[in-house]
Specification:
There is one protein chain. The protein is α+β, with helices and mostly antiparallel strands. Among the domains are: 3-64, 434 Repressor (Amino-terminal Domain), CATH 1.10.260.40; 157-287, Umud Fragment, subunit A (Ribbon). The protein contains eleven helices and nine strands. It has helices spanning 3-14, 19-26, 30-37, 45-55, 59-64, 101-108, 153-160, 172-178, 182-186, 252-255, 298-316; strands at 164-167, 190-191, 201-205, 216-221, 233-238, 242-251, 257-261, 270-273, 277-287.
Length: 317
């Protein structure tokens, strides 16, 4: 044990203080007081100053003098025992003397203005038109003739789109250059189709890449080309190629191209870049004056084989 540790323990015990109470007095934690008293740590300069002020001894005496041996020496003044400050005394407020009731009423009614009701006798008389002059003349309501309504181009396009416009192959070159002109589209022949939907429909005369050349193919306009579905039939209007009836395999997001495949054996597949595409129409149906050839069924093939066998037997006889 060191002198400073023994002095701190002695002064704390002499003043009946616990380690927690002493720690609060000098502004530190209780474990620090235990470390000071057990000589496991030396108090810092700030703690020494506060201990000196609290117990009334000098810092030199705390560090070098064993205060336990000179506790009975009258020349050493260890100061009175530390005691907590007295609790504050709260003095009750002196109640105000009661005020007269008339003074209270005057205080609350001071700012309110008094309203005086004045009665006045009013004489009513009959209204004379001459006092106010002649009555205003209301003009008669005349129904104006309505001017004819001039439809704007979008509305007129909707009104005239009741029929499906037909594009013949003879007008292929004109269509490639004027397909965006409303005047050119309105001059095309049109027809009615009971199965027309709400989309924009147009009919094209098919070429040799269709199963029935010369048929009328009806398509619905595809506004967003990225939505074209793989393996479905479309009619593509393209520069340098005209009208193409093909199955589409969409690679616009990958290569900016469309892979076109035909069901006709004599038509080759091709890759069409997006810069050559003018329009894409999803095929909804077709009209043709040709009837498809009947497909041979297995029963029909067996019947033909039996007929051929009978014919061979007849020849051998």
């Amino acid at each position: 044990m060191s002198i400073i540790s023994e002095n701190i323990r002695y002064l704390r015990s002499r003043n009946d203080l616990t380690q927690e109470q002493l720690a609060r007095r000098i502004g530190t934690k209780r474990p620090n007081i235990g470390a000071y008293e057990e000589a496991r740590a030396n108090p810092p300069r700030e703690a020494l100053i506060k201990l000196s002020q609290l117990f009334g001894v000098s810092i030199d005496q705390l560090l070098t003098t064993d205060l336990r041996r000179i506790r009975d020496t009258p020349s050493l003044d260890l100061g009175p025992a530390a005691s907590p400050p007295p609790p504050p005394v709260f003095k009750p407020e002196t109640p105000r003397p009661p005020q007269p009731i008339q003074k209270v009423v005057d205080t609350y009614l001071r700012e309110k203005s008094q309203v005086q009701l004045v009665a006045q006798r009013v004489t009513l008389r009959k209204l004379n038109r001459l006092d106010y002059g002649p009555l205003p003349v209301v003009p008669p309501i005349v129904e104006r003739r309505k001017d004819p309504v001039v439809l704007s181009e979008p509305v007129r396009e909707v009104r005239e789109a009741a029929g499906i416009r037909l594009v013949r192959r003879a007008l292929l070159d004109d269509y490639l250059h004027k397909f965006r002109h409303p005047e050119f589209i309105r001059e095309l022949p049109d027809f009615q189709w009971p199965f027309a939907g709400r989309g924009t429909l147009r009919a094209f005369e098919a070429g040799d890449d269709f199963v029935f050349p010369g048929a009328i193919v009806v398509g619905e306009k595809v506004e967003d080309w990225f939505t074209a579905e793989d393996g479905k039939h479309y009619l593509i209007v393209a520069n340098h190629h005209g009208f193409l009836y093909r199955r589409i395999y969409n690679e616009l997001k990958i290569k900016n191209t469309l892979l076109l495949s035909s069901d006709s054996p004599g038509v080759r597949s091709m890759e069409l870049p997006v810069k050559d595409i003018l329009e894409i129409w999803a095929v909804k149906g077709f009209f043709s004056q040709q009837l498809p050839e009947p497909a041979l069924s297995i029963d029909r093939v067996r019947s033909l084989v039996d007929e051929l066998r009978l014919e061979l037997e007849r020849v051998k006889r």
